[in-house]
Amino acid sequence: MQMKKLYEALEIPKGVTAIVGGGGKTSLIDELCSQLPGKVLRLTTTRILPPKCPCLMDPRPSELRQAFEEERVLCIASYAERDKLALPTVELEPLLNMADYVLVEADGSRGLPLKAPNDKEPYLTGREAMVIAMAGMRGLQQPIAEAAHRAERYAALIHKTTADIASPEDAAMVLESEAGLRKHVNVRFAVVLNQCDTPERLHLGQACAAAMQTPCFLTNLENDPEWWMDGKAN
């Protein structure tokens, strides 16, 4: 039986937490929104599909305040192309201050389990108290060309080609690299290795975690969410 909830184990601070990488950012945010106490605000600095919670388009502070009287979890956004949502165009500070916790999806991965950032990523707000980097274990033991968004950059970070297989040690290197998913991070940092949905993928996650110095959590966020730290049930 898990004694702690995932948000407690991650020690999500009040204020802004950004989530970057691949392999389940939206699923992690969904799960944290369901667990975190108090008022939770979610947004993106890139492009996302509309989330499950109510979403306000470029709200005024008074509109958000009123919405929080009826809803505990809200999204704020502006309209983007192809029915996607983007960062609100209104001033953020007074809106962010109304929530106890703010969760930001700060890059895209096109649904792939692994990714490397481009020159402009991650798109941080500058208000972050924590950054969480993610990778999906379904991408390991697969060709980098098939498993990674920005595959050429991913391969270059680990001195391989896109035809090579992504190993747990490769994923660990990209996750912790200051040219990879730890790029521009000068606040508290943690790693979530998702898609540990089979014994083999859990073993791959354990190997990846063993190769890192960063606090690392192994998760299966689909269906009945569960998590482990250092590969052991909590």
Write a structural description.
This protein is an alpha/beta fold and 234 residues long. Helix content is 26%, strand content 26%. Strands 1, 2, 3, 4, 5, 6, 8, 10, 11, 12 and 13 form an eleven-stranded mixed β-sheet that branches. Strands 7-9 form a two-stranded parallel ribbon. The mean pLDDT is 94.
What would the keywords be for this entry?
11-stranded mixed sheet; alpha/beta; 234 residues; two-stranded parallel sheet; 26% strand; 8 helices
Care to give the gist of this entry?
This protein is an alpha/beta fold and 234 residues long. 26% of the residues lie in helices and 26% in strands.
Element layout with pairings:
Blueprint: H1 6-10, E1 15-21, H2 25-35, E2 40-44, E3 55-57, H3 61-68, E4 73-79, E5 85-86, H4 93-96, E6 101-105, E7 114-115, E8 128-136, H5 144-147, E9 148-149, H6 151-157, H7 168-176, E10 188-194, H8 199-210, E11 216-220, E12 226-229, E13 232-233
Parallel strand pairs: 1-6, 1-8, 2-4, 2-6, 3-4, 7-9, 8-10, 10-11
Antiparallel strand pairs: 4-5, 11-12, 12-13
| Poorly predicted ranges | none
Helix content percent band: 25-40%
Morphology: globular
Rg, alpha carbons? 17 Å
| DSSP E strands, number | 13
Beta percentage is 25-35%
Order of helices and strands: HEHEEHEEHEEEHEHHEHEEE
